Amino acid sequence: MLKVAVVRKRPEFTLEASFAAPTPGITAVFGRSGSGKTTLVNMISGLLAPDAGEVRLDDEVLTDSRAGIAVPAERRRIGYVFQDARLFPHLTVAGNLRYGEKRARAAPQLIGFDEVVSLLGLAQLLERRPRQLSGGERQRVSLGRALLSQPRLLLLDEPLASIDAARREEVLPYLEALRDRFAIPMVYVSHQFDEVLRLATHLVLLDGGRMLAEGPVSELSLRPELQSIVGPDLVGAVLEGVVTRVDPEHGSADLTVGRGTVQVSVRGAPVGSRVRLQILARDVILAAQPVQGLSVRNAIASTVTAISNDDYGQVLVRLDVGGETVLARITHHAQKALNLRAGDAVWTLVKAVSTRGHAFRITPAGV
Amino acid sequence: MPSSAELDALRLSLEVALRSVAFSLPFAVLIAWLLTRARFPGRMLFDAFVHLPLVLPPVAVGYVLLILFGVRGPIGGWLRAHFGIELAFTTAGAALATAVMTFPLLVRAIRLSLENVDRGLEEAARTLGASALDRFVSITLPLMLPGILAGAVTAFSAGLGEFGAVITFASNVPGVTRTLPLALYTAMQSPTGDALALRLALLSFALGLAGLLAAELLVRRVRRLLGP
Q1: Is residue A227 part of a domain?
Q2: Residue of chain A nearest B144, judged by CA positions
Q3: Distance (Å, rounded) from C-alpha A236 to C-alpha A217?
Q4: At the topology level of CATH, where does B4-226 sit?
Q5: Apex A129 CA angle, A124 and A131, nearest 5
Q6: ipTM reported for the complex, 2 dp
Q7: Contacts of residue B145 in chain A, CB cutoff 8 Å?
Q8: I need a labelling partner for B77 at 20 to 30 A (CA). Which of A11, A235, A280, B102 fits?
Q9: pTM for this structure?
């Protein structure tokens, strides 16, 4: 368990956060730019000292302002992947990778050089200089360098932010491979919700230096605090399920979620693997009666549990779908037309295609 | 054909400049680091003091050195009593006078390169387990290398021609402290020295030009090696 409770007050900015992140596991620190995410991870790393508070990793105290404990960053064994990679320009890729490895001789050697090189696809790059690398390659080297320092915790500060969107796939699959291969706990800073959905299990929400909420991603996806940060188009319940049938030809899979089954659009998730799925509220259709002759692949009997006006002039409907909660956004007119009230039975319709890009395998592909 | 007086002066100038740079380089790195990174009271005054030789008359610097490092001076007397080192009127003394005069050039160049070192890289090294000294040696120093080299070559070139402080502190002893500019000055004083003076002047000119070009080429090459 990583326990963090810190305060840092500056005239222009105050940061206050306290959370407990499961280890191993990936905890996302999520918030807009300027919400204090980097300041928070810098305090975990020891690069920045809090005015007051404590940081504990698996019962080892790293910072305790009351007891006057502040383990220096170089002795914390916490790996840090910076937004701008920060590769050493005077060393080759191999030299960069070996830098942390050489200084971690005393630590248990859990991660080997050859393994990191092959896992991150660095074999062709070893003799190159950092300036000869693309943005994605730089981040992979930076990731490898941090891993080889045999960290007990890995901090990733928006590792994809300086890479253009089209090239993020040069890095994201490697992050998944890392999560599947090593049990290193990670704190992943991001302001992109799709990255959070894809990688993280636990979520810490920051806004303007204040922690709004923390908890499992699926739980927080239903909270208004998250909804206000991601905006109307990315509001939607996050569910987890197990793949029971795959149709590789069409890239679809049947997922058992709660007591029901949904058909989703996902690739690379074999039978038995776990998949995390976000059903965007704007993509959900509600029907008062069973429907026929529609192309929609998922039509599930469900119950309305709550109706509220959202911040965008529309109606957010909370549904109980086979024991799981799903959110649907509809207009006032639609609500009136269906005469929807809490307790009503409705049919929840979700197109399998609309889940594409919102469903990700979260356990190793081999399981 | 160059005469032996010319060769002596050239050899001496090279020796004095080389010794002065070798001696002052570690101090220059330390002081550049203090001026860039450390916060202490009186830093501005210290900064001004380091740069003083740039604006003082060289003769005044030589005079102060004579007072401090002369045979009966507080430091000179101590060095002589404990280590048998004599500085006044020796080649080592000429090197010391040159070192003091070229020190600001060295510090300025090194400081500029240190200011350009990305602190973020040192932070990265820190998270990879490098202690403060380790970080300095493995990251900061190599990244400062272009500045250190440029400073060293510039200081060396300037040191070849240091006149006022050398002649005041170390005098004008043939073969011991008579460097190129002192030999040139001596030749100019002699009624038959016109041809020698001209040759020495041309030699100084060529050395200075070569030094500046070498500094520039060296910096470019190292920069290319280090990357942006």
Answers
A1: no
A2: A90
A3: 11
A4: MetI-like fold (1.10.3720)
A5: 115
A6: 0.85
A7: 90
A8: B102
A9: 0.85
